[in-house]
């Protein structure tokens, strides 16, 4: 899971289920199913009590096929059930439409072991990381009852989860479940840590910094997250999502400040950053992973065929947005883009198309080819839009306004067609058709000429006329908007 310098944008998902919210939109409001989740003081066990008003569902399902292994006692309407899980993997509930009460226990440590989550403190006394797909048994997708989930936590404990929090509740641990497809992965942390709201340009990031040895510097991490989010708001003046979960997990000494980061979309958008908390604040500020991960929130959940696109956008913006925020000087940012394009070209082989490289990226270690081909296409698109009085920022801003919050998966071509529609001109689809089945790295000679970027040995030197300088400033300048 903790591969260095790789990144997952929640793309390793093939199926796309119907969203409960779409189903709910077409039906009358029905009474909510209520889940109470009690957490044991040693963080070893969850006890779940799920109450379904009539008409109750006829079965419960967990997304993880191994979920039955973590189940302890199960009682249905007060009666213990010896073998609750049927051959099809579901738990059957009484037929007849009556209300149902289901109680079950879950072995949290077994889930953490099976998923190879890191130990957070000796014997996990500080916090536990868990995956709700392994313990949250829910009515089938077509069921129309809304679901609320409330954690009952031991004194001094908090929960960090991606689900939307109930706005009508003072209690921070009540969530609405079922707003995204079930098979999108998520992480929930429970334990002794503080939840903090980091307010950035219209958003409230729900930050949790877990305990570690040595203890992480909470204030420094909060500042780092706030600055990274503010940099991403530099794309179009708003942080793209309202209240993402941001989970920081200190792992102790590592080879870099953030050995692993990822964005998951299950339940709601979430960024997870696994850090070496022993490093000084300036190393975190200089590191690219946080801005890269948060830049994934500028695009929707893309099907794995669009991994080059997701990674390309995040890779382009990790440099552009750090320059705009002042973390990188503009010439440094151009150099980083140039270095990346060179690495991408170095991995581009005759006979291997971008589509094939994307499909085989993990197996053949073609990360640079995939990430930087996408970044080159983002630069080419941005220049074409700017030639026509627009920009990539502006088109993504329009996408934010129309479509970003929809809890659905997008194919690469579908997303790019939508961007062309929002731009009012064909920019993205022609690039897609030209490069996705090509074994060539996108040609950057004309973009470099337009930007006045001159290659001298390994360096790229900004020059050219006033138009080129203005174009570079429009992309990397601090006052862009
Ligand atoms: Zn990424």
What does the model show?
By secondary structure, this protein is an alpha+beta fold. It has 2 domains: 168 residues, Immunoglobulin-like (Sandwich); 182 residues. The chain contains 15 helices and 22 strands. It has a 7-stranded mixed sheet with strand order 6-5-8-3-2-10-12. The longest helix is centred in the last third of the chain and has 21 residues. It is elongated, with a radius of gyration of 24 Å. The protein starts with 6 loop residues before the first strand and ends in a 5-residue tail after the last helix. The N terminus is likely disordered. Zinc ion binds next to helix 6.
Brief summary of the model shown:
The chain is α+β, with helices and mostly antiparallel strands and 481 residues long. Helices cover 33% and strands 21% of the residues.
Keywords:
481 residues, alpha+beta, Immunoglobulin-like, seven-stranded mixed beta sheet, elongated, disordered N terminus, binds zinc ion
- Shape, principal axes of CA atoms: elongated
Largest sheet: 7 strands, mixed
- Helices and strands: which structural class? alpha+beta
Share of helical residues: 25-40%
Q: Which parts are unreliable, with pLDDT below 50 for 5 consecutive residues or more?
A: 1-28
* Gyration radius from CA atoms, angstroms: 24 Å
How far from one another are the termini? 38 Å
Bound molecules: zinc ion
Q: What percent strand? A: 15-25%
Give the number of domains: 2
């Amino acid at each position: 899971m903790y591969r260095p310098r790789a990144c997952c944008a929640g793309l390793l998902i093939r199926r796309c289920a119907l969203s409960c919210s779409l189903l709910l939109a077409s039906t009358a409001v029905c009474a909510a199913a209520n889940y109470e989740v009690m957490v044991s003081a040693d963080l070893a066990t969850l006890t779940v009590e799920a109450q379904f008003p009539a008409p109750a569902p006829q079965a419960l399902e967990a997304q993880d096929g191994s979920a039955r292994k973590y189940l302890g006692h199960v009682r249905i309407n007060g009666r213990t059930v010896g073998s609750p899980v049927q051959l099809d993997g579901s738990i059957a509930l009484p037929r007849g439409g009556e209300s149902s009460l289901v109680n079950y226990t879950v072995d949290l440590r077994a889930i953490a072991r099976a998923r190879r989550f890191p130990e957070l403190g000796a014997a996990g006394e500080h916090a536990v990381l868990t995956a709700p797909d392994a313990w949250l048994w829910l009515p089938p997708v077509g069921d129309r009852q809304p679901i609320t989930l409330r954690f009952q936590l031991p004194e001094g404990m908090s929960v960090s989860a991606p689900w939307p929090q109930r706005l009508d509740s003072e209690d921070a641990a009540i969530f609405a479940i079922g707003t995204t497809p079930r098979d999108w992965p998520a992480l929930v942390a429970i334990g002794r840590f503080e939840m903090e709201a980091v307010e950035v340009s219209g958003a409230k990031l729900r930050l949790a910094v877990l305990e570690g040895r040595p203890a992480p510097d909470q204030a420094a991490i909060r500042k780092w997250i706030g600055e990274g989010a503010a940099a991403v708001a530099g794309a179009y003046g708003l942080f793209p999502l309202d209240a993402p979960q941001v989970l920081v997990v200190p792992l102790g000494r590592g080879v870099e400040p953030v050995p692993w980061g990822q964005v998951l979309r299950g339940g709601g958008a979430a960024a997870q950053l696994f850090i070496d908390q022993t490093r000084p604040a300036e190393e975190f500020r200089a590191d690219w992973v946080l801005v890269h991960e948060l830049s994934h929130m500028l695009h929707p959940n893309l099907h794995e065929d669009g991994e080059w696109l997701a990674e390309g956008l995040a890779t382009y913006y990790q440099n552009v947005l750090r320059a705009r925020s002042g973390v990188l000087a503009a010439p440094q940012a151009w150099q980083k883009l140039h270095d990346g394009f060179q690495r991408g070209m170095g991995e581009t082989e005759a006979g291997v198309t971008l589509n094939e490289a994307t499909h085989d990226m993990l197996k053949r270690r073609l990360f640079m080819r995939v990430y930087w081909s996408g970044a080159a296409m983002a630069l080419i698109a941005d220049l074409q839009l700017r030639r026509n009085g627009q920009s990539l920022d502006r088109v993504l801003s329009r996408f934010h306004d129309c479509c970003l919050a929809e809890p659905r998966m997008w194919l690469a071509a579908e997303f790019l067609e939508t961007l062309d529609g929002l731009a009012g001109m064909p920019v993205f689809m022609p690039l897609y058709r030209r490069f996705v089945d090509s074994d060539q790295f996108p040609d950057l000679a004309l973009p470099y000429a337009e930007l006045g970027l001159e290659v001298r040995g390994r360096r790229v030197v900004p020059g050219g006329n006033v138009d080129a300088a203005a174009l570079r400033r429009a992309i990397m300048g601090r006052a862009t908007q």
